[in-house]
Design goal:
The protein is built from 28 helices and five strands. The protein is mainly alpha-helical.
């Protein structure tokens, strides 16, 4: 149990005013130039670096004490409970230590102080894990009936019933104490590929430049991709796109070695633990069959027609024989607008009114208590995420640039915050997290409700067309694109398992072929797109991306229930948000009225995409 907590925290990094909008200038602002009200306040985690140092020292003292339970775990119920309570105290402390170091680092990746603090806590966690490596082997020496007896004698142990069951289900893959200790010690090495990838991309890359619609020289950054990829000027879109991939093209061989090391790491751990393959190793402990993953890929491959149709529609209305990847987000309507961050806040809050007053109160907490880091700054990690650990409110990192996508990103990350906050308030620590299979359901639901609100309040056909296009593109990017990534990830892992060498040519050719299959005959793939696998950080998170696609399908079903069934649908959604990991992922979705054991949720997404394209073509004609 404790060993798993340590591993969890090792991989936890793996989810305005005009004067502050960084994309309005050719230079990304320094963090010191951004108003404090737009920056998160991490003193809620630790009031100072000194307080962090005190907790690090404390956890270093606590960790060796776990070894005192060696040989005694199942001597009596009280001893087992004491061991678990100590492991939870250590795990909770490491959670806060990671939170503070990682999130100070992620808003300024050039800050060597917080890089060092992150490495120190990571090293301490690895060493701490070695003290608990005996836990699983010793527990599994005796029959589960002994643990059942202990639970009947000590009521406080009863809450760990599912955790105990999970442990015994993993018995075939649990090694000896010595072997578990050795695996714990490999932690420093196993994280090198992803760490090198992030540092290269965030600090070493020299981005290309391009000219915007007004002829201004713009230095590319990943934070600017969202703004210029939807430009109405095709020259700007293409030049921006090529500028984005300049550093990836220059380092593609290095990136291929990092990806090779990442995949081989996963193969190593799967083989050592006796799993049939890396996919089983990733899913089995969560109670998810590999058939669910493969069912997603098969269902999507059987329903590629809507995506092929969408490429044809885009080519037709853009006046092109074929589109290219930089046309993917090109607008088909002239309507566009920018949003201040304050406007985005107000829109999202009103859109989520159907979820009830408790959710509105959570939104106020997130907005008013400096829990959101809003704008891009120099050295800040790209993208967005929500970060939550025990006994600390959720935090959200954005790179808000004032576009429609940024409004949806705010709604998306708030969905994660609702899920984290309610699960932590409703569940004991051991079940306060949630599996990646369910991780995106809440965020897809909040995005869907936002879309419904915006469509209902659209003031013109042009605005409605833009919103419908956004909806279609979300299906393309969150459902089809993530399923495509999942297929690529499975393909390269299976290749490595079969002895294939993951060269740059193999990775790029495989990615390009899958891309062309998904988009069909109306898409002309570019050289840059074929090696764009190198730009995707999620590939370092070991079979994570499939959860975006499954969650999208589930989230659409949940939002439909909220809209059509009123309070019953809301109650089911809140019950799901509050469930944490108290049961297995597929079973927990039943609380929200969603059955993921069939292909129906996936097929429903394809049907909806066709319906939306019918609506859009009616407006465009």
């Amino acid at each position: 149990m404790y060993f798993r907590l340590i591993i969890f925290y090792l991989f936890i990094l793996m989810a305005c005013s005009q004067t502050n909008e960084s994309s309005s200038s050719s230079a990304v602002p320094l963090r010191s130039e951004i108003d404090a009200k737009y920056k998160w306040d991490l003193t809620r985690v630790y009031p100072s670096d000194e307080a962090w140092e005190e907790d690090l020292a404390k956890v270093k003292e606590l960790s060796p004490q776990f070894e005192d339970f060696k040989g005694k775990l199942l001597s009596n119920p009280e001893t087992l409970l004491s061991a678990i309570e100590l492991s939870e105290e250590i795990g909770q402390t490491f959670g806060k230590l990671y939170h503070y170091a990682a999130n100070n680092m992620n808003v300024d990746l050039k800050n060597e102080k917080y890089q060092a603090m992150y490495q120190r806590v990571r090293n301490a966690a690895i060493k701490s894990g070695s003290y608990s490596s005996f836990y699983a082997p010793e527990m599994l020496e005796k029959d589960y009936s002994v643990v059942e007896s202990f639970m009947s004698q000590e009521p406080k142990l009863a809450i760990y019933k599912k955790s105990f069951k999970d442990l015994y289900l993993d018995k075939p893959h649990t090694l000896s104490e010595k072997e578990e200790k050795l695996l714990t010690m490999t932690g420093k090495m196993s994280g090198v590929p992803s760490e090198a990838y992030e540092i290269m991309k965030s600090t070493d890359y020299e981005w290309g430049t391009f000219k915007d619609e007004n002829g201004n020289d713009i230095t590319m950054s990943e934070g600017r991709y969202g703004k210029y990829t939807s430009s109405t000027d095709r020259r700007v879109r293409e030049d921006m796109y090529k500028a984005l991939y300049v550093p990836f093209g220059k380092t593609i061989n290095t990136m291929s070695v990092l990806m090779k090391g990442n995949v081989e790491k996963n193969v190593f751990y799967a083989n050592v633990r006796g799993y049939e393959n890396t996919l089983e190793a990733r899913l089995k402990s969560a109670g998810i069959s590999t058939s669910v993953y493969k069912n997603l890929i098969n269902s999507v491959n059987n329903n590629l027609q809507p995506l092929h149709r969408w490429a044809g529609i885009k080519a037709k209305y853009l006046g092109l024989e074929k589109i290219e990847p930089f046309d993917t987000y090109a607008p088909l309507s002239e309507y566009s607008r920018d949003y201040t961050y304050e406007e985005a806040q107000a829109i999202v809050k009103e859109a989520l009114l159907p979820l009830g007053p408790d959710i509105q109160n959570l939104i106020d907490m997130m907005y008013d208590e400096n829990l959101i880091d809003v704008f891009e700054n120099q050295g800040k990690e790209s993208g967005a995420y929500q970060y939550s650990v025990w006994d600390v409110p959720p935090y959200i990192k954005l790179n808000f640039s004032g576009k429609l996508d940024d409004v949806f990103t705010l709604a998306h990350e708030l969905g994660h915050a609702f899920h984290s906050y309610l699960s932590e308030k409703s569940q004991p620590y051991v079940y306060s997290g949630y599996n990646t299979f369910n991780a995106e359901v809440a965020s897809v639901t909040t995005e869907s409700l936002l879309m419904d609100y915006l469509l209902a309040n659209a003031k013109s056909d042009e605005e409605k067309a833009v919103l419908i296009q956004k909806y279609i593109q979300d299906i393309g990017s969150t459902y089809y694109r993530q399923a495509r990534f999942a297929e690529f990830e499975l393909t390269i892992h299976e290749a490595a398992e079969n002895g294939e060498i993951l060269t740059e040519d193999f990775l790029t050719t495989t990615f390009g072929e899958i891309y062309s299959k998904y988009w069909g005959p109306n898409m002309e793939i570019t050289e840059e797109e074929a090696f764009s696998w190198a730009r995707i950080p999620h590939f370092y998170r070991n079979y994570y991306v499939y959860a975006y696609a499954t969650s999208f399908a589930a989230g659409e079903k949940v939002s439909e229930r909220v809209k059509n069934e009123g309070q019953s649908g809301i109650d089911g959604f809140i019950a799901f948000l509050s469930s944490g990991s108290s049961d297995y992922p597929v079973e927990l979705l039943n609380l929200a009225g969603v059955d993921m054991t069939t292909s129906e949720p996936f097929e429903a997404v394809s049907r909806k995409m066709n319906f939306l394209m019918d609506e859009l073509e009616t407006i465009l004609k």
